[in-house]
Amino acid sequence: MAARPPVAFLPSPQPHWVGDGFHVVPLFADLAFREEVSPFLMLDYAAPVEFPPRETPPGVGAHPHRGFETVTIVYHGEIEHRDSAGNSGTIGPGDVQWMTAGSGLLHEEFHSREQTKRGGLVSMAQLWVNLPAKDKSAAPAYQTILNAQIPTVDLGAGNRLRVVAGAYGDAKGPARTFSDLHVWDVDLKAGADVVLPIAAGDNVMVAHFSGTLHVAAQDLPQPGLLMFGPEGEGIALQAKSDVKLLVLAGKPLGEPISHYGPFVMNTEAEIKQAIADFRAGKMGRPDYFDA
Ligand code: MN
User: Fold this and answer.
1) From ligand 1's centre to the CA of 10, what distance in Å?
2) Backbone angles phi, psi at 254, to 5 degrees
3) If you measure from the C-alpha of residue 265 to the centroid of ligand 1, how many angstroms do you get, rounded to a whole number?
4) Residue 251, Cα to own-chain centre: how many angstroms?
5) Ligand 1 centroid from CA 107, angstroms
6) 10-40: b (≥16 Cβ within 10 Å) or e
7) How many A from CA of 94 to the centre of ligand 1?
C-alpha cells in the first residue's frame, strides 16, 4: 500500500507576540481557516524562550472566543487559564487544555504564578479546532488533560506517539471532541522510519517543531508544516535527528467558514452577532475575574 505523497511544506512565518507571554509562529500560514486544513483552523507554536523571573505573569488578559475550541499543549514551563464560565486550570509539560468556546466566553492565558516567579523556559502550541455548525452554540466547556491520562504508543526503536485526541490503533485519546479527528504528539529518534496510518478522506498535517525530518528525499527546516495529499493509506516519516512533531488528522467539516479575530462562525451575519453579543457582555465581563 502506498503512503500519501507530501504535497507542500510551509516554512515558518515570522513570529509575533501574543500578549507578552507567548512568542508564536502561525504554522498554518496562508492555509489557516481554509477547507484544506479543516476541521483544524490554525496552529500557533511558541518555540522555547527563556523568561527571566518577574513579578507579574506574562500572557494575555481577558478576551473572547466563540464558535470553536482552543487546545493548548505545553512542552516547557507552566501555563494558567481562567474563564468566565468559571473554569480554571494550571498545566505543565506534557499536559493539555482543551477549551470549548462554543456559544462564547472570555478567558485569560498566563504563565503560572510559580513559573513567573522562578522564570525559565516556556514552550507551547495552541491549536484552534473548528466546531460543526450544529455545535457552535454548545455550552462552553473545559477539559484539563494531564500527561498521565494520555496514552503513549510505542512505535519501536524509542519512537513514541501520544494520543491526545482520537485514536491510534487500540489507544484512545482522552479529549472529548465534536467531530472525527486525531491529535498525536509524536517524538521520533534519529534514524526513525515510520508510517502512520491515516483514514481515507481525512485531511492530514504534520507540524514540525524541532530536529531534522527527512521526507521525499528532503531535509525539512523547522519549525514548519508538512501537508499531505488525499490519496493513500498513511504518511511516511523519516528522522535524521531526534524530531518533535504534532500530527493532526480529521474529516473536513465541509461547511463555510467566516472568521474575525477571536470568532469563527459560518456566516458574516453570525460574526456580526458575535461582536454585538461580546460588546453587550453576553460572553461574560472582564470584571468576572475580580469577583
Ligand atoms: Mn484565547
Assistant:
1) 24
2) 65, 30
3) 16
4) 16
5) 6
6) bebbebeebeebbbbbbbbbebbbeebbbbb
7) 19
Low-confidence ranges of the chain (pLDDT < 70): 1, 286-291
Closest CA to 245 of 165, 160, 169: 160
Q: DSSP letters of 78-146?
A: -EEEEETTS-EEEE-TT-EEEEE-TT-EEEEEEE-HHHHHH-EEEEEEEEEEE--GGGTTSPPEEEEE-
0.90 surpassed by pTM: yes
Question: In this structure, what is the dihedral angle of CA atoms 248, 254, 258, 263, given to the nearest 10 degrees?
Answer: -50
Using an 8 Å Cβ cutoff, are 21 and 49 in contact? no
pLDDT for the residue 142: 96
Q: Which amino acid is located at 67 in the chain? A: G
Cα-to-centroid distance, 69 and ligand 1 (Å): 9
Q: How far is the CA of 206 from the centre of ligand 1 (A)?
A: 23
pLDDT of 291: 47
- Listed in sequence order, the DSSP H helices in the chain are 113-118, 268-279
pLDDT value, residue 289: 62
Question: What residue type is 122 in one-letter code?
Answer: V
> Is residue 207 within 8 Å of 189, Cβ to Cβ?
no
Contact 172, 163 (CB under 8 A): yes
Q: Are 90 and 2 in contact (CB under 8 A)?
A: no
- Report whether 254 contacts 35 (CB < 8 A): yes
C-alpha cell at 282: 453576553
Phi-psi category of 86—alpha, beta or left, where left has phi over 0 and alpha has psi -120 to 50? left
- Cβ-proximal residues to 193 (8 Å cutoff; 6+ apart), any chain: 236, 237, 238
Which set of grid coordinates corresponds to residue 143?
477539559
Residues 6+ apart with CB under 8 A from 198: 4, 204, 228, 232, 233, 234, 235, 249
Q: Which amino acid, residue 54?
A: R
Residue position matching grid coordinates 496552529: 43
Distance CA 260, CA 57 (A): 27
